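#onboarding

Welcome to the new folks! Below is a worked example of what a typical request in this channel looks like: someone posts a single protein sequence, and someone else replies with the predicted structure as tokens. Don't worry about understanding the tokens yet, we'll cover that in week two.

Example request:
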Amino acid sequence: MSNQQRETFFTKPVNLYYMLLGSTLGLSILGLVMVFSASSIYSLGAKGSSYAIVLRQFIFLLISIPMAWVFSRLSLVQWKLIARFGFLVSIILLGIVQIFGKSVNGNHNWISLGFVDVQPSEVAKFLMIVWAGFMLAKQERSGVEHTVVLKYIAPAFLICIALVMRGGDLGTACIFACILAGLLWVSGLRLGIFGAGLSIGLVGLTIAIYTTPYRLERFMVFLNPFAEDQYKHYGWQPAHSLLGLASGGIFGVGLGASRQKWGNLAEAHTDFIFAVIGEELGLFGTIATLLLLSILIFSIFKLALRANDPMVRYVASGFGCWIAIQSILNIGSAISVLPVVGVTLPLVSYGGSALISTYMGIGFVLGAARRDPVIYRELQESGIKWLR
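Example response:
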């Protein structure tokens, strides 16, 4: 009986909508709590108040939620109009960074607005996915095999990657590359061409690592951050991330009681927030975080598969690839199975640009769910007006 109930829950279309909403709100609330806990010490020293950073995150969340609601109400015609200019706007945003940008932690990918720094590459990720989905849908309707992918989409992404790499941000460049790979896979690109493209990408990544000393050091140290000659250098962050995770046990040392955030673990509220979760909330907290992320990604891909319009299917799949690969890179860095690449954990880490762009994508997928006749009928029958 329980197996039948479990199968019914996951196969009932409207539950995908609820899973997407629930996991998004759950991760957002967890993010607010953990950003406050992880940033309080740094915020007090740098900003003069323990609440300065979490207050900014809260304000960005208040902006993001209504934005996602508006985006979920846009028609497919409106999305196609936005998609037409996605690539152009992305190039303009990334180009502005090259002219007026500022460097943060060695990466020249930020623009200062005075009261806050923004990262245009986050919005560019979303716009490029929407544009690529639109182009792939045009290809599918025309019946021409992969000409759009080979002639337009791949070169466009390579231009974005080149602009991001010009600012030294290998982590964001990797995410752009992985989004491209995900879209190519979903589009049905022949395995031989896909494998050749993947090989070229890996060669490019190898060159980017080996031609930059600090990247090479990070790559060489991640498997043994406690090595005597590296512990106090490039091994410091991954080592203290592991120490935090290891000291958490099953239920953690208690919310707010992290020892690593007291200056040992840099970027505790951004790149290494997963380590603080593990230290303060223990194995229970890390599993809960992974479960929420899994539900979010699962619901996105399932809703993508249900979409009748090819553009919706491609864009939702691209967004799912984005969330999945960024989660893997962030958590992989925290547990030292991947080199530190400096990307945030979606919806959990501090970062206004990342939060807003992620909610843009969630708004698109929610809109796709609402356009599903079966889901919309069940939402109407629920009697909850704000869900409709």
